[in-house]
Design goal:
CATH class of the largest domain: Alpha Beta
Radius of gyration: 38 Å
CATH architecture of the largest domain: 3-Layer(aba) Sandwich
Shape: elongated
CATH superfamily of the largest domain: Vaccinia Virus protein VP39
Number of domains: 2
């Protein structure tokens, strides 16, 4: 099998335009080669000019359906020679578009997110489509360098970025070693609340791997049973360094639980205090018309603090520091409450202004679209008139040339000797014709 087949067909492609970074082609060659003959349904989010859909159709020769999804209606007008290619128009992060795509191809083997590259869209789209990826399938996210840009809802230390969400998922894969009994989906709660999504237990259970390359993240899906660490397998007969393992030879045992976390009674009140703060922030945030980034960040910070308190041994000295911080929190609580109330009122005011501005923006956009359509219609009429004028000019020039040629022929005939010599005979013939007419 050709190890560089995708690169070759990409370099020789001449139909619709495709735009990829060179490293992506190397990554695709690496991860897709083992799947190439097994892939039946492909979804690419972000169609643009449609070139990559043609390339996937050529690469996955056994594929039955290649679906492109784009929010731009113009993508639906792209014509493809391969009947397996279909374009669905809509926002890939919402359920209605998901249902439209699944109506075309129900079980997806390979999904590529090359859409808006904004963190919110990346996260919502992943949660929207990963459950519909076939077991053994691959979900790939392109251009994750945008996750470090503020213009795309990102930043190196931004807790709400798509890259940070994927890092959280990497921890979720290792959840059986956390020594915690809380709901795994609650670990993702701050980001889920901010983006208005729900990560199902099936999503968590079937997530097999999260891999990173430069600007690319790769998620693999496997059955839930294939994602656990499994039993401990010990084989062999000689153990000179650690003979204790001989007792486990040819047997299996589960990995021992992590018991290094100190059980400090004071942790109970600490958890309660942190939980109280989280509940207060959520209560302040629930009445806002739109999620507050400040509240979401506070919730994320409190979740990290709570996890740290549960996982780290705390001695008397450390506990004294915690108590001091809690005392400071009690003194600062009225100020925090006032700040939250101010944030709430400001949020409501800003939400109202935002709604009004969005209404004006939609009206202006509609007028602009109407003007653009009218301008395009007039331009087409002008083009048609100009074409008609050019056609008439060509016809007039052709007629003029024919008339000139006839004049030249007549003059040549009149000036010829035979014309002069036969003049008497023509006159005689005309007289006979007149005589016949008089009879």
């Amino acid at each position: 099998m050709n190890d560089h087949y995708l690169t070759q067909i990409y370099q020789t492609h001449r139909a619709h335009v495709s735009d990829k970074w060179s490293l992506y082609l190397d990554i695709y060659e690496e991860i897709l080669r083992p799947l190439r003959e097994r892939v039946r349904n492909v979804l690419e989010i972000g169609v643009q000019n449609g070139g990559s859909l043609e390339l996937w159709a050529q690469y996955f020769e056994q594929a039955q359906t290649i679906v492109g999804c784009d929010i731009d209606p113009a993508c639906a007008d792209i014509e493809f020679s391969d009947p397996r290619i279909t374009v669905a128009v809509g926002d890939a992060s919402v359920s209605s578009t998901r249902n439209q795509v699944l109506g075309i191809a129900e079980n997806l083997d390979f999904i590529i997110d090359d859409g808006s590259h904004k963190s919110g869209d990346i996260i919502r789209t992943l949660v929207n489509f990963f459950p519909h990826l076939r077991e053994g399938g691959i979900y790939l996210i392109e251009d994750l360098h945008c996750s470090y840009w503020q213009s795309h809802q990102g930043g190196l230390h931004t807790r709400l970025s798509a890259m940070n969400f994927l890092k959280y998922l990497a921890d979720v894969i290792n959840r059986e070693h956390w020594s915690r009994d809380d709901d795994i989906t609650q670990y993702l709660r701050p980001l889920c609340d901010f983006y208005g999504i729900e990560v199902s237990t099936e999503f968590v259970a079937t997530l097999h791997a999260v891999e990173f390359r430069n600007s690319i993240a790769l998620l693999r899906k496997r059955p839930a049973a294939a994602n656990r660490l499994g039993a401990r397998v010990v084989v062999g007969e000689t153990a000179k360094v650690e003979p204790a393992v001989l007792g486990k030879a040819l047997t299996c045992s589960a990995p021992s639980a992590n018991t290094t976390v100190a059980k400090n009674p004071a942790l109970t009140s600490t958890r309660a205090a942190v939980g109280e703060m989280k509940a207060a922030i959520k209560a302040g945030d629930s009445s806002l018309q739109a999620p507050s980034p400040l509240f979401a960040q506070l919730l994320a910070m409190l979740a990290e603090i709570q996890g740290f308190l549960e996982e780290q041994p705390i001695g008397a000295k450390e506990w004294a520091i915690v108590q001091e911080l809690l005392a400071e929190r009690a003194l600062a609580h009225p100020a925090v409450t006032r700040a939250l109330q101010h944030e709430k009122s400001e949020g409501i005011s800003l939400a109202s202004e935002r709604t009004a501005l969005l209404g004006k923006l939609d009206a202006a956009r509609l007028q602009a679209e109407q003007l653009e359509h009218a301008t395009n219609r007039l331009q087409r009429q002008i083009d048609q008139l100009e074409q008609a004028n050019r056609t008439q000019e060509v016809e007039l020039q052709s007629c003029s040339r024919r008339i000139s040629a006839l004049h030249n022929q007549i003059n040549s005939l009149i000036n010829s000797r035979s014309w002069r010599y036969t003049r008497f005979l023509r006159q005689l013939s005309n007289r006979f014709k007149k005589g016949d007419n008089n009879r």
